[in-house]
Amino acid sequence: MNKYIVLLKGINVGGHKKVLMAELRELLSNTNFQNVQTYIQSGNLILESPEKDVKKLKLHMQNAIKNHFGFEISVLIKTPKEFQQIFNACPFPKDIKQLSYFVILDDAPNKDLLNDASVKIYDGELYEIINDCIYFYFEKGFGQSKFNINFFERKLNTIGTARNFKTMVKLLSLST
């Protein structure tokens, strides 16, 4: 059995794309996923599957959610090892890392696109793109940031979803 950390993008935000976690756990448990756990209401899951092909898993999950809830969402899937590597690669010192956000990307961006996306800078905001994650620190907090994920998704031609340090730590602990 293979264990995965699954991040759903854009559910339960501002009353849109409402997904109850108990209902999601039941749906996925009934569609060949085992030991399905959720963490908070923002689409964080730990689950197991005999399937090793992440693209097949993603498609299967997207179809199940669309058929049951009636809308499409983006699904990002990482193994616990990949997730740990993302967490460990954070370039910020410990005090900043604990206040950071991790934008997990569906895949690592093309080098040419990376150069184009890395030119924007704002005072009090740090970011670094390493492999399949954008590490953010906002001096005034995430809600006051001038950056947004959509900018990077367009520039890097991939999808991403953000999680804070605390959520990253919890997902790692649940996946071991």
Essential attributes:
Alpha-Beta Plaits, four-stranded antiparallel beta sheet, 2 domains, 7 helices, 36% helix, alpha+beta, single chain
Provide an overview of this structure.
The protein is α+β, with helices and mostly antiparallel strands. The protein folds into two domains: 2-78, SP0830-like domains (Alpha-Beta Plaits, 2-Layer Sandwich), CATH 3.30.70; 83-174, Alpha-Beta Plaits, CATH 3.30.70. It has seven helices and eight strands; from the N terminus they run βαββαβααβαββαβα. The protein has helices at 21-29, 54-69, 80-88, 94-97, 111-117, 149-156, 165-174; strands at 2-9, 34-39, 44-49, 74-78, 101-105, 125-130, 133-138, 160-164. A four-stranded antiparallel sheet has the order 2-3-1-4, with helices on both faces. It has a four-stranded antiparallel sheet with strand order 6-7-5-8. A hairpin with a 2-residue loop joins strand 6 and strand 7. Helix 5 runs antiparallel to helix 6 (149-156). The chain is globular and about 50 Å long. It starts with a strand and ends with a helix. The relative contact order is 0.18. The model has no long low-confidence stretch (mean pLDDT 91).
